[in-house]
Amino acid sequence: FDPKTFRRVHGGKIYGSKEVPKTIDILWAKLKGKSKPSDMPIPVELIFPVKNWTISKAKKWLKDNNIKYQKFEPAKKKEKQSMSENTATMNPPKSLRIEFRA
């Protein structure tokens, strides 16, 4: 695992025992300056696609699974440039993100 990269997977196990459904993406990474080459990557974000999750359902899943997090927010909205006009329109976010960073 290259410590300068991230890996995104659909579902799996975090912290050795927490089963994450395939409808949630896990972003794995090594913390810059805090991990040794031999250290395993850790989950740094869980991504809840809005086609499967609402804010309340995602927060309930986190609480039910005793997962503590630092931040819960919608993914960044992407600006889309119109071809016929010179105005930018905002697309709604496609996912909700939670971060647990050390």
From TrEMBL:
Region (Disordered) location: 75-102
Entry protein name: Uncharacterized protein
Polar residues compositional bias, start-end: 83-92
